[in-house]
Amino acid sequence: MIEKKLKQLGRPKPKDSTFELNLKKRLMNSYQADKAPDPKEVPAETPKKQRVFFLGRMGIMTFVMAIFCVFTLGGTMAYFSFPGVKETVNDLVGIEETGVLAVNSEPDDATLYINGEFFGKTPFEQEMPVGNYSIRIQKEDYEDYFTPVKIKEGETEKIEAELVSLIPEDEYEGWFTYNNEELGFGFRYPGEWEISENGDQDYVVSLEDDYVIATLTHQKLYDMDSAIPENYTQIQIGEGTAYVLLVDNNIERAIFPLESKGQYLVVNMDVKSGMEIPFVSEESDLLRKFLESVWFDSVDSNDTVETYKPPVSNVKDRFVWQRGDTVYSMDNQGNDMRNFDFAGKEIKLLSPDGKWILFNENNGISIIDTLGENYQKLLLPQSSQEGINAIYAVETTGWAPNSRYFAYRLYLFDYNKCNDGFCEPGRGTQVDSGLGMQNGYYIFDTENGATMYLKDSRRLFIGNWDNMSDRFYMGSTMGDEYFFLREYELGLGYGEAEFHDYVLESDPDYQAYQYDVHNRQSVVLRKGGMDDAGIYMAKLEGNEIIIGTKLKGISEWDEYEFPRFSKNADFLFFNYHEFYGFENGTFVKLDGELYEYEYVRVIEQGKVIAIRYRDDAGHPAPATAVVINLTENKIVKFVLETKEAEKITLPVVEIN
Amino acid sequence: MIKNLSLEQEMALVENAKKDIGAFAKLYDLYFPKLYGFVVYLVGNHEDAEDIVSETFEKSLSNLQKYEHRGFRFGSWLYKIARNLVYDRSKAKTSINLDSFEMFATDENLDERINDQVEVEKLGKFVTELKAEQREVVVLRYVDGYSIKETSMITGRSEDSVKSACKRALLNIRKEMPT
User: Number of structural domains, chain B?
Assistant: First the structure.
């Protein structure tokens, strides 16, 4: 297995073997230089320094006195009476006075430094010259221990160092840890408790032992205050409040809600019948420990780029995004905030003017008018065939630039034959819609609710409007025939749209193409394949696609997918990595200059893009978006952390 | 070098490092070899790697007080800073060419850990020939053992994108090195 072998790859090491150590020293020194010295950490003066000091200032006097004392009758007395005299005399005649230094530490086996020099490991005992020393005791995972010590002649100086652990004491030793990364919560629990997970909807995990059943439930935007019955007693658990139902001072039930960013994790505990947990008891202490260990960080938090849903679209006039079950909409100057409850709905596409939100709901697609006083809901036509009550729409292909039409593709299913009552492509039974059509593309007109079918569109993909909203293009991307673009003419009434094909005959290897048509004279093609992969300009003439300039060579695999013209066709947009992802992106001015941004979301035929920044320290800053209005050369920065979007105008980019 | 710490131990160490540089030295010891290896794999030469690693640690030290634990290992933060520095330099085109590699030596312990060293060395060469975005994902996932989620956080790419980059990288390696 390649993966296994990759694990055996070594890590390159610095060429210069001193680099690691030197960098460390430099970092430590620069840090220390910034920091005022801590008096506790200033080492005591060394005996040598003291001696120099002594000799320097009082030495001459003492020396004279010492000589005098040794050679006179009072000398002996002076020798024993004055320590300075004794020390100096000993120095002169070579007698060294010593004491014993004994150092113990808890835990032992710590490294001992005396006056900054390594002396050994604890426990330590050694005869030392009298004098003052600075002691440092060091052990991994413990705080360094500093103390001054004075060694006196013939005496043993004992140091008993209680090292302070850097790792907090774990009162949960022997407990297990449960972490649910998907829903962003976790807790610790005693080994004897049984845990079982139930991923069904909100019901997340349950714990059980002899006397208590605890269940943890994840709830979004739920008003907890009204959910706690009045007869429950409040108790403080860590930084949270738990509510317990007491009967004869025994805990019967407990509710412990943890709030994070508008969502709740609720721990419900039920005492098994026949069991008693006195309110204050060892058992209740166990529950306290358990509850204190529960952590919860809502998955809709702004902690990572992925947990915050990026704007669904960045639009000509409005900017729309989703947090949790709420969709927010504002104009691209940060005004006119509106929000909609989108619980259970999945946003698919916005109209370029931000007026319409198109979403999946109940196996069908619906749209709402977000600007209406009472927003309007239009359901796409259901099948007329008896007994068939479900349509499932995939590929909501796109809005026309005028925001009036959108194109979508339908798969039709017999709801009753779908597995688990839920239809998705490849499951259930495909049926005739009663309109005599299946798997094709439709155009929906929001002004009158009428639908037009795009004839022979079943095997075509990447629907694309021209800039006038009156022609719709689809391409053959299957790669088993010459690539062609099919142009549907709208505005001829409702029913079936007529089409005209343009073929790329200079395509001998039947490559798949991605494309965007601004008009017949301005088409951009992205060619994959092994040869000449790149972005090309092209035009449509007669029955042909005629390839023109190569704008940029690309790699076959991934970069610069789905090229899109800006509204005025003076820019091209590309996404790195992923279509409709909030990924690194690029746009190219057609004069050939390249601009790259991180986290760009590219819109279809629009003029506005959004960017998410990271901060200097490298944390993602997912709640920040920047909208660039390319045609007006303006940048507007929105902070989407809260409902009340903050608007900052930045005169940043010189586009022209 | 100190052994790997649990997430909790590491958090405690980071909190301590905010007050005591001695604790940061431990984080440095823990992450220097990994981070250095990662950066060399990204930039392909020791000179740039030394600059990037120095700057990463300087930046992390000066921003340490602002560091918040967000459920990821401290190393993820260091890697992210380093990666951003690499890409900033690469974009500014000041020095780094992500497609140019010098040969480099790896751990001297390699012999003891593998049976077929020649094959692994070959593999190392193929890794250095991958495109930068695939290379970083392969190193993070397989050499450094980061999860998809952590890799996604470090690289700022979605988890799906990380998965597909891994897949493509493995495909490219397999093409060169049939098993």
Answer: 2
Q: How far apart are CA A603 and CA A622, in angstroms?
A: 19
Q: What is the pLDDT of residue A333?
A: 61
Kindly report the backbone phi and psi dihedral angles of residue A114, in degrees, each rounded to the nearest multiple of 5, phi listed first. -115, 125
Indicate the residue of B25, B149, B168 with minimum beta-carbon distance to A24.
Answer: B25
Domain identity same for B100 and B111? no
CATH architecture entry for A177-296: Sandwich (2.60)
Measured between alpha carbons, how far is A461 from A482 in angstroms, rounded to an integer? Answer: 14
Task: Find the domain containing B57 and state its range.
Answer: 1-104
C-alpha distance from B123 to closest chain A C-alpha (Å): 7
Taking only Cα atoms into account, the Rg of chain B, rounded to an integer number of angstroms, comes to: 17
Question: Structure pTM?
Answer: 0.40
Token reading at A285 = 């202490």
The structure tokens 């470090």 sit at B154
Please write the tens of the pLDDT for every residue from A81-129.
555 555 555 555 555 688 999 999 988 888 888 877 778 889 988 888 8
**CB-CB under 8 Å, A304 with B70:** yes
ipTM of the prediction: 0.83
Rg (CA), chain A: 39
Cβ-based contacts of A9 with chain B (< 8 Å): 106, 120, 123-124, 127, 142-143
Of B104, B132, B155, which residue constitutes the final position of a domain? B104
| Residues B76 and B123 both lie in one domain | no
d(C-alpha A156, C-alpha A146), whole Å: 19
Q: Which CATH number characterizes residue B53's domain?
A: 1.10.1740.10
Relative to beta strand A313-314, strand A295-296 is unpaired
Statement to judge: residues B99 and B112 lie in one domain: no
Residues of A in contact with B49 (CB under 8 A): 12, 14
Residues of chain A with pLDDT under 50: 36-59, 62, 64, 66, 68-73, 75, 78, 300-315, 381-391, 393-394, 418-438, 556-558, 575-587, 589, 591-592, 594-656
- Calculate how close chain A gets to B164, using CA atoms only, in Å: 9
CATH code at position B132: 1.10.10.10
Considering only CB atoms, A618 lies closest to which of B68, B84, B152, namely B84
